[in-house]
Structure formats: C-alpha cells, structure tokens
Amino acid sequence: MIIDSLKNAPKYSSVHPLFAKAFEYIATTDLATMQPGTYEIQGDELKAIVSDKEGKSREESLEKFECHRKHIDIQVCISGVEEIGWKPIEKCDTDKGGYNDEKDVQFWDEKPDMYFNLTDNQFVILFPEDVHAPMIGVGEGNIKKMVIKVKIS
C-alpha cells in the first residue's frame, strides 16, 4: 500500500508499467467536473470508475472488506473525507465465499488492522495483498472519488 498526495504521483510511475499513464490521466482530467460512471483509459488495462455518494459506517464497510487479484487500485479522493480500513492479506483467515473471478474480488470476514483518511487530492495504491474497506464517511457530505483499475499483466 502507498498513500500520498497527487503532487507526488510522478514518484510512483516506475512501480508498474501502466502507472505513468494512469497518473497522466488523473493530472490532465478535471476531476471536479467528472460525472459518476466508468471511463475507459486504455482498453481493458486501465479504466476509471468515478463515484459521488454518501459514506458508509465502519460496520457497513466490512460487508465488502475486499481485495483483488487481477488489478491494482489507485483510489483518489476528489472531495470529502474518506476513511479506509486496511489489513494485509496474510493476516486474513476467513473469506466470504471465495474469489469471484468474473468480478475480480474476494470478500473477507475480518476486521481491519488500521484505518486511515484520504482528503482532497490524496490517493492510495492498493495491491492484491491489501485487503481494504473503502467509502467510510467521516463528517458530513458526500465522498467523490475515482478508482483507477490497473490490470496486472
């Protein structure tokens, strides 16, 4: 897991071959005016999903305490304050029904080891070993965010 501000995003371009293109897309897009939906960036290798909705409680977020095998998530907070729960997969023992290959998701019946907040123009990179519970609301108002799904080759 990597947490940082968008101004430092170029430092991470060498971590994965598609990160440079993903961060270029973020830098050249007017995030504030983007409407919720899915945006193709580069075929099935890179796509952006924008949401703008009310945050969940910590308890609600644990219904989808998740990780992915085929994608890395770059999650960008556009506005609001988002809390995310995190736990390394090697400490997870109890899954909820196994891995769904079609949706590239596995849910866990676990509790996070830690929580952290993202605010405007901050991002987190979540790798397959990062089990996460996103969209926890902190304060009032909606959370607007973008998740870039980076396909692992």
Automatic annotation (TrEMBL):
Domain of life: Bacteria
NCBIfam families: YhcH/YjgK/YiaL family protein
Protein name: YhcH/YjgK/YiaL family protein
Taxonomic placement: Bacteria, Pseudomonadati, Bacteroidota, Chitinophagia, Chitinophagales
